[in-house]
Each structure stands twice: as structure tokens, then as C-alpha cells.
Amino acid sequence: xxxxxxxxxxxxxxxxxxxxxxxxxxxxxxxxxxxxxxxxxxxxxxxxxxxxxxxxxxxxxxxxxxxxxxxxxxxxxxxxxxxxxxxxxxxxxxxxxxxxxxxxxxxxxxxxxxxxxxxxxxxxxxxxxxxxxx
Length: 134
Prior knowledge:
By secondary structure, the protein is mainly α. 57% of the residues lie in helices and 10% in strands. The protein has helices at residues 20-24, 27-39, 45-65, 69-78, 89-99, 117-133, and strands spanning 7-9, 84-88, 112-116. It is globular.
């Protein structure tokens, strides 16, 4: 069996994207735009640590759920992956830098990517160690 790639591109849109709020330009459209802007803003080390901790916990929850049919269905509907954490290109670059991995050239700040869970855990653990030293 081959090892999974460290980074994969991710489709951001949910299964049920579109609909009434997008057609009317409603609050959902505004909220999505604000969320995209926040996702592209770089974190400081404490913020990156919090974000990585949260994303690792989400992936571990998906991993636990993936053991039974209902959980796999939930993961499919929510687009949660038991082996990867979802993040923007900006946060991916920051995370790879902490982990000591060179960022591939095609990674763009506005892009949405999946980072392999073990790499995210390594970066989180390194940030925890840095924080504990200070």
C-alpha cells in the first residue's frame, strides 16, 4: 500500500451549496465571504496552535465515526475526513513551516486544502513544545 499524499486540494462547497440565500445574495452569502476572508488571515503562533488543535480533534472525531456506517455517512455529508484536516492555503503554509516541510509552489492563500492528520499533529506538538518552553 502506498502512503497517502501530505497535501490534497479540497472542494470547499458543501453538498447542499447554493439555494435561496445565494440566489438572493442574503446573509449566507455575506457570512461565507467573511469566513473566507478570516481563513486567509495568518495566525500568530497561539492562534495557529488553537486552530490546529481544533482541526485535529475534528479529524479524530471523523476517524472514530468512520468505524460504522452511520458515522461514514455523517462524514460524507459533512465532508469531514478521518485522515486529513481542512485548512486554507495561508494556514497550510504556516503549518508546513512549523513542521519543517517546504510548501509546494501551487499552494495559494485563497485555496482550500487537506493536510494529512499526522503532519498536523506534528506541527501542533511542536507548537505546544515551543509554548511550554516560554
